[in-house]
TrEMBL record:
Its main location: membrane. GO terms for biological process: lipid biosynthetic process. It is a multi-pass membrane protein. Keywords: Membrane, Transmembrane, Transmembrane helix. It is found in: Membrane. InterPro entries: CER1-like_C, Fatty_acid_hydroxylase, NAD(P)-bd_dom_sf, Sterol_Desaturase_Related. SUPFAM superfamilies: NAD(P)-binding Rossmann-fold domains. It comes from Ceratopteris richardii. It comes from the Eukaryota. This is Uncharacterized protein.
Amino acid sequence: MAIGLASWPWERMGNYKYALYLPLVWEVYQTSIPLRQNVCVHILAVTFLRVVVYGLWQAASRFLPLVDGLHIRPQGFSYRQIDREYHCDNPHLLQALLLYAGHKWVGLFECMPFWSTRGLVLVLLLHVGPAEMLYYFIHRALHTSYFFENYHKLHHESVTPEPSTAGVSSFLEQIWISAIMGIVVIGSTVIGGASVFNLYAYVLFFDCLRCYGHSGIEIVPVSIFKFFPLLRYFLYTPSYHALHHECQDCNFCLFMPFYDYFGNTVNPRTQDFHAESRDKSTGRVPDFVFLLHAVDFTSALHSLFVFRTFASRPYASSIFLIPFLPIVVLIASGMLIWGTAFRYWNYYIRTYHIQVWLVPRFGFMYFLPFARDNINSLIEKAILDADKTGVKVFGLAALNKNEALNKGGSLFVAKHPNLRVRVCHGNTLTAAVILKEIPIHVKEVFLTGATSKLGRAIALYLCRKGIRVLMLTESRKRFEAIFAEAPSNVRNNLVHVTKHQAGKNCKTWILGKWLTYWEQMFAPSGTHFHQFVVPPVVPFRRDCTYGKLAAMRLPDDVRGLPCCEYALDRNVVHACHAGGLVHLLEGWTHHEVGALDVDRIDVVWNAALKHGLLPV
């Protein structure tokens, strides 16, 4: 019995559970009643709006420009919590089916008017009185040993609650919550106060307050309770509810702490903890900041604050993203005119506080000549903000260190010679990862993007190892400059080529420049394409293999990392990101900008392995 009420009836259905909405959809389709009078239309509409409420609260709670410094527990979230809360919309489905059953069996909500002032007052009185009181006693009962272990423990496994946590509970819990909501909704209907507005208003306001309490951000100023002391008894705060998740034997009320005060179950730290949560001066300064940018329109929707479940898995294009593309295009158009760099998200690694910031620009914008000055100004502002804050190392991702844009970050170091923060493009470790992927038996490689920062370092390193490097570049002058850097006894290992046909007999291609379908066709069957080009090339050849962008797996003790970095797996970051971490962990005091020091490739690689980072 306990197991049956602890799990959901449709648990084994997975996402097929949404088929349970079909009877409502069918009734909407086949009925002749006007849509505005159709109860099923209102049930489906209010369910959809509930999902929107949860989504908006979820996005707002993770959108750092809006809530930076307000997080109650800033340690971040785990993949385990996100996976556990995947089906947080189960209560929506249950309550939609209960409303539908009430409509079919009893004829509730028939011919409802749009507005009822009497009904609105009844809803308020029924909630403040019996609903809140009943929830308080039921919630206390759930924290007794038997009920907690069998029914309520799942909800409290989320030590750092999010809006989605509000919907994570056992089937028995949600039956009780639905009954409490039913006292208000059905009670006001039976008494004669039913209205369309009251149905929407109560259900959505209920969800809004649940999400607010589980949001993990303290948005209520301390001063409001000083001016209105009685409000403390009628409005709970996220910090109030966070203490419940932490201590579990206090702060049981749903939305109104009045019953906790009456039952003497208020945590004595409630007021002080509220003040601490609002004190932004207690925030910890990050040791390392990594500056990202969006790659393309759909990958921008992989941002952590958009769809948290989607962001917690490696990025892959999906048909469900298509409806959102017009919104992203409009935002991108606005960015061409105006935009600022802002703090995006933070997580922790070991004892170091790491933050990831985002330049609100898409990849294609970096190649627009008129946009370069604007992008550089955003990056410069972010570096200066980090320097002012006390950040130790500032990492540049992908196109943020483009040679044509700012010479690999050298522009900022030259312009601000007194920077305390160390600017690091991390490409030394990127080169090391690519080089360590090349099998020992390889004697020849075909290299595109051969005169870029990475291409130059890779070519010089390989030629020192006695490997012949076919360097694809149209610039003879740039090739000769790299050729002159190589030791005289190995220079002959560097070969200048100008056509892709030159690699037709080489099965190891290293791509630093994008390849079209026809250019890939010059590679022989069985070729492996290593790459450091953003975005990665499209894998057209089925008879060849394609490596991912250079990346490293973080140590097992990483905590608070709730999203995947672009198309990489969980707990894996791009090598340039890992390079910045190594720079911090080693305590190096030099800037890593501009051209790569080939002699440091093995040094950085060994340092990364020493700190527990592993090749993918």
